UniProtKB/TrEMBL annotation:
<dbReference type="InterPro" id="IPR011009">
    <property type="entry name" value="Kinase-like_dom_sf"/>
</dbReference>
<dbReference type="InterPro" id="IPR053083">
    <property type="entry name" value="TF_kinase-domain_protein"/>
</dbReference>
<feature type="domain" description="Protein kinase">
    <location>
        <begin position="1"/>
        <end position="324"/>
    </location>
</feature>
<dbReference type="InterPro" id="IPR000719">
    <property type="entry name" value="Prot_kinase_dom"/>
</dbReference>
<protein>
    <recommendedName>
        <fullName>Protein kinase domain-containing protein</fullName>
    </recommendedName>
</protein>
<dbReference type="GO" id="GO:0004672">
    <property type="term" value="F:protein kinase activity"/>
</dbReference>
<feature type="region of interest" description="Disordered">
    <location>
        <begin position="371"/>
        <end position="407"/>
    </location>
</feature>
<feature type="region of interest" description="Disordered">
    <location>
        <begin position="427"/>
        <end position="493"/>
    </location>
</feature>
<dbReference type="GO" id="GO:0005524">
    <property type="term" value="F:ATP binding"/>
</dbReference>
């Protein structure tokens, strides 16, 4: 089972809470709560992040798949004994959440709960699952020795299952809890006009019974019985003159009568506690295994070969930030080929299409401003170099390298994981020669008219043309005493 969340911290907390609750309920030994084995968190480069719960394999899918199949095939219906078994199984799961122990199949002896007086586990605080619905009920293989011809219904998804004491306050219901359309009226506050008297009704085991009844009603009718429209909910509840939680059937009462209901059916039509091949035709139901999933260690069917993966890669990529929203990289300037000394400029590209038409019209209207500069000594050159591009040009095989020609430099720039050798054309370096003179000794104050050292103009980080000595190659000249000129004496006087 997988969950998604954009907040990694929130996902980790929710995953840990759900796993702890599910693990505690699995330890009760109830056969109608799916076993859980572990959980893991998978952070991703871009949200949403993923959380995984590792549970028992449910080979027949969930109950919503069963209802969808019935809606697509109106002539089919679920056999009555199987509905009794599902009804009883869901109530056993509610009993395990309430008491902390599993109930045997032959209990209780009567509707008063005879034999269940001491079924509470020591120190157990009841759990309330407010999200019981067909999507959270899976179908697994049958139980050993107990109606082997039918799959077993088991509850999952205890993400919003809390202890009973946490539901005593009405603040937890603000905005609604559980899934809209599934659950009793006391699940939501503020309430619609049809359930205002349930605003301060606490959520307890009677609320779970309402959810279970909705699921069973959907199985009986062969369609999903969920109402999310406000007006339809009001119309439905307006027919209930006194809709109180106290008059709902108790858990013990329903456990007894679901057991009796299956017994009464078998007395009329025969036992169905048999393998699938021995069940009467009126009680058979063909279950389709979920062929889109495999248990660990199984071999995939041969007809899977060539099928595309189920996950849609484009949808996952759509969750990532678009490239255009990222900060653009600073492009490295590479002078065009025409800027190289002694290089013959290429002819300008011929202008055609709409641009040529607009230029012709503009030249006719403003002849002085758009006069061609061909043959003129003034103005810009005839060929304008293109916009600078990144240094991504590559030399053809066998061509002379640019650094072997005058005016070129070679340097190594790190790109990607390794270093790639890239050849670029440098901007012409200044060859300004300043006035020669001696170097200043360390600590000597600088005079405004003191001459600068010889050599080309050089600053750290600037490249020097091949063949030009660097400043460190100039020999140091001996220091000479400073002698002010006549102009300096006049100024000082």
């Amino acid at each position: 089972m997988m969950g998604e969340e954009y907040d990694l911290v929130r996902l980790g907390e929710h995953l840990e809470t759900e796993y702890d609750c599910h693990d505690i309920l699995s330890a009760t030994g109830c056969p109608h709560i799916l076993e859980i084995y572990g959980c893991s968190l998978r952070p991703r480069l871009y949200p949403p992040h993923l959380g995984y719960l590792y549970m028992e394999y449910a080979e027949y899918g969930d109950m919503q798949d069963l209802l969808d199949h019935l809606e697509k095939n109106p002539g089919k219906q679920i056999p009555e004994p199987y509905i009794w078994l599902i009804f009883r199984g869901l109530l056993e799961a509610v009993f395990a959440m309430t008491c902390g122990t599993a109930i045997s199949k032959n209990m209780p002896s009567d509707e008063s709960g005879l034999g269940l007086e001491d079924r509470f586990a020591p120190g157990w605080e009841p759990f309330i699952n407010t999200d019981i619905k067909p999507e959270n009920i899976v179908l697994t293989r049958s139980q050993d020795g107990y109606y082997p011809g039918y799959s077993t219904a088991k509850m999952i998804d205890f993400g919003i299952a809390l202890t009973e004491s946490k539901f005593e306050s009405s603040e937890i219901k603000v905005g609604g809890i559980g899934t809209l359309g599934w659950g009793p009226p006391e699940h939501r506050t503020p309430a619609d006009k049809w359930n205002t008297k349930y605003d301060y009704t606490p959520i307890h085991v009677h609320s779970e019974i309402f959810n279970v009844a909705q699921v069973v009603l959907s199985l009986m009718e062969g369609q999903t019985r969920v109402v999310t429209d406000k007006e339809r909910r009001e119309q439905r509840m307006s027919h209930a003159p006194d809709y109180k939680t106290a008059i709902r059937p108790s858990l013990v009462y329903l456990l007894h009568w679901t057991k009796k209901g299956l017994e009464n059916w078998e007395q009329a039509y025969g036992s169905v506690n048999k393998p699938e091949g021995e069940i009467p035709d009126i009680a058979k139901y063909k279950f389709n295994k979920n062929e889109t999933m495999l248990k660990i260690g199984e071999v995939a069917p041969s007809h899977w070969k060539g099928l595309q993966r189920k996950r849609r890669i484009p949808e996952e990529e759509a969750l990532q930030p678009p490239i255009m929203e990222k900060r653009p990289r600073i492009k490295q300037y590479v002078p065009p080929q025409a800027d190289v000394p002694n290089d013959t400029p290429k002819p300008p590209p011929q202008v055609t299409g709409i641009k040529a038409t607009l230029m012709t019209v503009a030249n006719f209207i403003f002849p002085e401003s758009f006069r061609s500069n061909e043959g003129s000594q003034a103005g810009p050159p005839a060929f304008n170099p293109p916009t600078p591009r990144p240094a991504d040009r590559r030399l053809p095989s066998g061509a002379p390298k640019p650094h072997e020609q005058p005016g070129y430099l070679q340097y190594v720039a790190g790109m990607g994981r390794g270093e790639k050798r890239i050849y670029v054309q440098p901007s012409p370096a200044s060859q300004q020669v300043l006035h020669p003179g001696p170097y200043l000794p360390p600590g000597q104050p600088v005079h405004t008219k003191y001459p600068s050292p010889p050599g080309p103009y050089y600053l750290p980080g600037h490249h020097v043309h091949p063949g030009t000595p660097s400043p460190t190659e100039y020999p140091l000249q001996p220091m000479q005493p400073f002698q002010p000129s006549d102009d300096s004496d006049e100024e000082s006087s």
